[in-house]
Design brief:
10 helices, homodimer, 46% helix, alpha/beta
């Protein structure tokens, strides 16, 4: 094994200190106090508050502040990750690693495989942890504990760089699943993006008169629809092909339920419900 | 006010001692120890276990055991409620009340408005409380605390009978919402039955390879799909008209998402997500 990542005394930069970026900082503090954490973002006042709260050591609005970093985690919305990674890459030393926390990987990973400065490497990541809340005030040092982080190397990714990025997420308590960016996007369309669309479509039906009749089932089923519309619009658009294909599959399944219900086909309806329960119970 | 319901020393019969029936018994025990609870069901061995566990005072497979009851709560699946209510009504004394806990009310309430023995009254109820678990072992004396019970009188229902049934649910900690059986069924299609279909359609997509990529969002969104297929098939079929209409509305909304995603319409997608979040956040 190479030395642990992050090394004692090394600098980690986090671009985008929101819920995810802030929770990375909090987890590093708890598990790896001897690193220096540079927080980079657009809103200087918010970053200074995070610094005063002890979450980050340095608050900066310029990518130059990350110059010393051995590893940079880009935690901005998916439609800003490529640009933010390029901006910061110009300031880094050879040997530096960049990873991200984006929920869609295909375009990000293909664009960041080329035209980075010599010696700077990007390895895509997607920590499967989050919340419908936003902002570093909701940071949680245990957010990643026991959760899966998908790491999506390109065929050209050096094994050493891949290993160091994986070790970084392991340090935060995560379990690594490695897959290609394209596999990741097809899978997450089904496990995350299409469920968001379905939850939003259900939540939209809730008129004022119906509200007091929404019990725990409705609340659970629609909880993720409370997520930030700006972030989610970017995610859905970045994974448009897999998401539209997934919507089609779910709508076909709903149409099968509709047919069984309309025709009074009790055995057919039972089979549809049985499959759903069996798969859900395997979780 | 009339005397409290149930009166001290009176008998309450529960037909179907599963999660809901058992929780009614447990809540009566905790809040109203001085009533005698008769549990009636098909499975004598299971009922005797519930009796030995102290949940019910009398375990019986014959409706005759409910002869003394001032109030009977029918907690069997929706497709058995009418028959079970008729069977037990024949054994009751004049003045006795029957209510139920069925998730669909239209047919049940219309059938039980006539041909009951003189002096026996049915008032439909739907306590909005439950779980994807089954069986009296999961009984919870606090299941109803603070939750809504929809009570669905017919135009012919006597005010005194209605008031006594509402008082019964209030005794268990519930808040009453009164509406017609038809209004109830249209509303619950949207807040409960169609979400079940959507959750099941999503859960059905979860192949083995995808399982480890299903995080809390997927888990929450599909939790209700773990419900009993037999019970849910009966509910969906009993409310077929409103459920199919509701499926159509949700599928239209999903199709609107699909169009916005496919055409890259970011403002349109944001508007759809905004509406969903706003309505969800009002819960």
């Amino acid at each position: 094994m190479t030395s642990s990542v992050p090394e004692q005394g090394s600098t980690i930069a986090i671009v985008g200190v929101g819920l995810i970026g802030g929770s990375i900082a909090a987890a590093l503090r708890r598990r790896h106090a001897a690193v220096r954490i540079v927080g980079i973002g657009r809103n200087a006042a918010r970053l200074e508050q995070a610094q005063q709260a002890g979450l980050i050591d340095v608050a900066a609005t310029s990518p130059a502040a990350a110059g010393d970093a051995a590893l940079v985690a880009i935690c901005t919305p998916v439609d800003r990750i490529v640009e933010d990674a390029r901006d910061i890459a110009r300031c880094l030393r050879p040997g530096a690693l960049i990873t991200d926390a984006g929920s869609v990987k295909g375009r990000i990973c293909s664009e960041l495989q080329h035209d980075l400065p010599e010696g700077v490497t990007f390895v895509g990541s997607h920590p499967l942890a989050g919340s419908e809340k936003n902002g570093w005030e909701h940071s949680d040092a245990e957010l990643f504990e026991g959760r899966v982080c998908v790491v999506t190397p390109a065929s050209s990714t050096q094994p050493d760089a891949l290993q160091r990025v994986e070790e970084f997420w392991r340090t935060l308590g995560m379990r690594i699943v490695r897959m290609s960016p394209e596999e990741h996007d097809r899978a997450l369309a089904i496990t995350s993006h299409v469920p968001h669309v379905a939850a939003a479509a259900l939540a939209a039906q809730l008129t004022d008169a119906l509200r007091e009749l929404a019990a725990t089932g409705f609340r659970d089923t629609t909880r993720i629809a409370a997520g930030d519309p700006e972030l989610w619009a970017a995610i859905l658009l970045a994974n448009a092909d897999s998401v539209t294909a997934g919507i089609d599959r779910v709508m076909e399944q709903m149409a099968a339920f509709r047919t069984a219900i309309e025709s009074g086909d009790e055995p057919g309806l039972r089979r549809l419900l049985d499959v759903a329960r069996e798969r859900r119970n395997q979780l």
